[in-house]
């Protein structure tokens, strides 16, 4: 029996496993013992036989990814089970091992990975940064968060924070390890105790306000909520004191409706987002989201509440929030834009930024009463890329438009407007399900599946971008004429 000390890191296990594999040492000859001391691989090598003549083994990349995630689990059996899987995949000739879900080793490892994926998700959802001061040298504000993940998943969870809070200096402190980001570099240092975390500051109030505003009645299945947000995490959440109150005061119709059998089901064309919800998040959102057929039957506030937790495409991760439509539920006219911009993303309301101002002014001139119109977007999350200190708008792709379409279709089914205005090509793509050329097709178009009157026209941002004064005046006049046509319906 060969005693192999393994330490905290996956890389360390992988190096040891490679050595053992190349020497033909079978899994049952190895005794993996946990040791955090600095034991070099070299000392183990001295005790091993020399490498066998066939040292090269093709290890499937999918195994390495699975193993890296599963490693974050705290189960002490993981080095042994992972090595046995590695052995079977390579030396054992069981190339298809990972396509047999009932295999005991694969099943165990997949279970670890799943549990780690849940922990990563929880970390993304429940890490709360506190402002702790300003760096004297750089003048940049410093943020710190304390978190106690069930697994050792910090390194797997941290790319999300680098992406989401790229412009901030922050540290995430955990008992296992700490991650530090200074706007350019990511570093890791040993774990700390909770005493190292500075006391409460004003940011916690911000979190409470934010949480209250995003609180989602669709999540009010208390069981689902508790499994999403186990009590263990509550103690570090500034909004935790609010939760019980929100639960007891908000027994909404959403909860009642979801449990009422026998509702009629209206088909909604594209349900692929449900599958994506599953694979992208690894959390069973199906517990808390109604099936696509039921979306069209939800009252508007409940439909919007459900849209707030949509994870059907990756845009949610970089956006502040879902920006739902705005306006009366019985509006006669629906205006459909492309996606929220920077200001809309922060405020949670469509068309309040520069394009919105152009649109509202044109509506007023065209005689369209803003209060009677429902404004919404084809895509409900802001897609952007950093551009210095700015967040630069990026046009959503076909897939993102498709994934968001069920929400827009459900809004339409709910409101059943007499007229719909498609502002620009993305709105056209979403509801007509094809590429449109605004300059060629502008005006009244035939799309009875959307509404009896459908008008395709410019997006107000296009008007803002036109530099040539004459061209802009002409396009603006056409835009107003299109809106005036709608006012007359
Ligand atoms: N542009 C859009 O298409 N929608 C908004 O909400 C804002 C800008």
Per-chain topology:
Elements: E1 2-6, H1 10-22, E2 30-34, H2 41-47, H3 61-71, H4 78-90, H5 104-126, E3 130-134, E4 141-146, H6 154-164, E5 169-173, E6 177-181, E7 186-190, H7 203-214, H8 222-228, H9 231-234, H10 240-249, H11 253-258, H12 272-281, H13 292-295, H14 300-307, H15 315-318, E8 333-337, H16 342-347, H17 354-366, E9 373-377, E10 384-387, E11 390-393, H18 398-415, E12 419-423, H19 425-432, H20 438-441, E13 443-445, E14 453-457, H21 460-465, H22 469-487
Parallel strand pairs: 1-2, 4-5, 8-9, 8-12, 12-14
Antiparallel strand pairs: 3-4, 5-6, 6-7, 10-11, 13-14
Helix pairs in contact: 3-4, 3-5, 4-5, 5-6, 14-18, 17-22, 18-19
Brief summary:
This protein has 22 helices and 14 strands.
Q: What are the key terms here?
A:
22 helices, 14 strands, 4 domains, binds uracil, 44% helix, 5-stranded mixed β-sheet, 14% strand, alpha/beta
What does this entry look like structurally?
The chain has 489 residues and is an alpha/beta fold. The chain folds into four domains: 2-122, no CATH class; 127-196, no CATH class; 202-259, no CATH class; 271-484, Uracil-DNA Glycosylase, subunit E (3-Layer(aba) Sandwich). Helix content is 44%, strand content 14%. The strands form four sheets. A five-stranded mixed sheet has the order 3-4-5-6-7, with helices on one face. Strands 9-8-12-14-13 form a five-stranded mixed sheet, with helices on both faces. Helix 5 runs parallel beside helix 6, helix 14 (300-307) runs antiparallel to helix 18 (398-415) and helix 18 (398-415) packs across helix 19 (425-432). The chain is elongated, with a radius of gyration of 27 Å. The chain starts with a strand and ends with a helix. 36% of the residues are buried. Mean pLDDT is 80; it is low at 38-42 and 246-289. Uracil (URA) is lined by residues 337-341, 344, 350-351, 353, 355-356, 377, 461.
């Amino acid at each position: 029996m060969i005693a192999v000390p393994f330490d905290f890191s996956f890389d360390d296990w992988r190096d040891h496993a490679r050595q053992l594999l190349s020497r033909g040492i079978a899994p049952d000859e190895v005794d993996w013992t946990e040791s955090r001391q600095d034991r070099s691989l070299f000392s183990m090598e001295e005790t091993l036989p020399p490498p066998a003549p066939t040292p090269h083994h093709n290890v499937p990349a999918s195994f390495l990814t699975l193993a890296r995630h599963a490693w974050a689990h705290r189960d002490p059996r993981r080095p042994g089970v992972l090595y046995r899987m590695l052995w079977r995949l390579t030396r054992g000739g069981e190339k298809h091992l990972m396509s047999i879900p009932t295999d005991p080793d694969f099943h165990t490892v997949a279970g670890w990975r799943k549990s780690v994926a849940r922990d990563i998700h929880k970390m993304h959802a429940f890490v709360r940064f506190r402002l702790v001061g300003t760096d004297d040298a750089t003048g940049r504000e410093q943020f710190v968060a304390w978190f106690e993940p069930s697994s050792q998943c910090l390194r797997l969870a941290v790319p999300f924070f680098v992406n989401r809070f790229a412009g901030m200096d922050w540290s995430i402190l955990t008992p296992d390890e700490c991650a530090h980001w200074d706007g350019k570099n990511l570093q890791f240092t040993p774990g700390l105790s909770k005493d190292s975390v500075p006391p409460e500051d004003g940011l916690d109030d911000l979190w409470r306000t934010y949480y209250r505003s995003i609180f989602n009645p669709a999540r009010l299945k208390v069981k689902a909520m508790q499994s999403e947000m186990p009590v263990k995490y509550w103690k570090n959440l500034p909004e935790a004191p609010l939760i019980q109150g929100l639960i007891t005061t908000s027994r909404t119709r959403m909860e009642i409706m979801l449990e009422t059998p026998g509702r009629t089901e209206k088909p909604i064309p594209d349900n692929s987002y449900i599958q994506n919800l599953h694979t992208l998040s690894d959390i069973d959102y199906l517990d808390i989201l109604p099936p696509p057929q039921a979306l069209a039957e939800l009252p508007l506030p409940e439909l919007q509440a459900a849209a707030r937790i949509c994870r059907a495409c990756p845009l949610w991760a970089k956006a502040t929030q879902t920006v739902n439509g705005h306006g009366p539920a019985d509006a006669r006219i629906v205006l459909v834009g492309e996606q929220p911009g920077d200001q809309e993303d922060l405020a949670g309301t469509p068309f309040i930024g520069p394009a919105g101002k152009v649109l509202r002014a044109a509506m007023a001139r065209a005689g369209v009463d803003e209060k009677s119109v429902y404004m919404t977007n084809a895509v409900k999350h802001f897609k952007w890329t950093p551009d210095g200190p700015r967040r630069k708008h990026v046009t959503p792709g076909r897939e993102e438009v498709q994934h968001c379409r069920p929400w827009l279709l459900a809004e339409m089914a709910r409101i059943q407007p007499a007229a719909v205005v498609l502002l620009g090509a993305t709105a056209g793509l979403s509801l007509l399900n094809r590429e449109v050329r605004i300059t060629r097709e502008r005006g009244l178009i035939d799309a009875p599946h959307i509404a009896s009157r459908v008008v395709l026209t410019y997006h107000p941002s296009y008007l803002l971008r036109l530099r040539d004064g004459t061209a802009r005046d002409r396009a603006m006049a056409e835009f107003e004429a299109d809106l005036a046509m709608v006012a007359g319906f």
